[in-house]
Amino acid sequence: MKSILTFSGLNTFRCCPRKYELRYLQGLTTREKPETLTFGSAIHEALQQWYTLPNDAKRLGTVLDYLDAQFPGRKGDLQVKGQWQRARALFCGYAHRYAQEEFEVVAIEREFEAEIRNPDTGRASQTFTVAGKVDGIVRVGKELYLLEHKTAATLDGSYLDKLWTDTQIALYSYYLRQIGFPIVGVIYNVLLKTRLQQRAGETEAEYEARVQVLAAKNKSGKSNAKRELPETDEEFEARLAEWYSRPEAFHREQIYLSQDRLAMLQDEIWEISQQFLDARRRGKWLLNTAHCFAWSRPCEYLAYCQSGFNPNVRDNLFISKPPHEELSLASKSSETAF
Is the pTM above the cut of 0.70? Predict the structure, then answer.
């Protein structure tokens, strides 16, 4: 039985073979998810539910109930509570903005598996197939597009330019064409994450200090300043609702995929699969230190690598988890390579 290759594994191997070995062979994954990943995952799943229930008059309530369940610690943790408030406000704003869609939903969370072929001979690999899952496939007019959800902290020209370099989506489009979905482009569905914070107000000491400063500037030596009280939940949620009513809170970017670019992927996938086979045969998973601080943050395996792969560090920071649990196809493979 052939092994499954996915984009996440392919990209990890290309960036750092040692990171690939730790995640996909040893199965190590961090015990705690970063806050940004938890928020993004919750919104992603909420969008899946939203588009799975297009004719349900109560679908917004269903999605909000789901989001409530994703932040169970909100009553005792102010940080979790803030994430929950932002998630609800974001989705209420989204539901209002896109109450009527410009596309027809064809498929949601569509999995696929296709052959990897030698670009010189056209023969299928005897070792690998490529597999993945796309957020959605939609029809605009008579054309099919991938629908790709993104949560982003900022949206500017640089962010939009980076969308063109999204190899994952180009790869998925190429292989979806092979199995009967003539994808012509991508609609990036970008949802902005607000930085608004609930105002804590002033402590008594902070208030007294401010009064003294203002009084010193006043000829009378007095100040009528009032203490800034904490913002109530209702006030904060009203500010969030106003923020997500703005046009810039959501964005749709439509990109066409050229045939030349899709054809180039066939060469890339084949070459990387051959490099992987060589590394596996020789048992050599090289450490690429240039990737330790990619994306302006440390790699999740940095402390483990720095420790010389100390088993105590491994056991404290990681748990063992099989890769690609989101793919039902992975369970059909005797070995998930990437």
Answer: yes
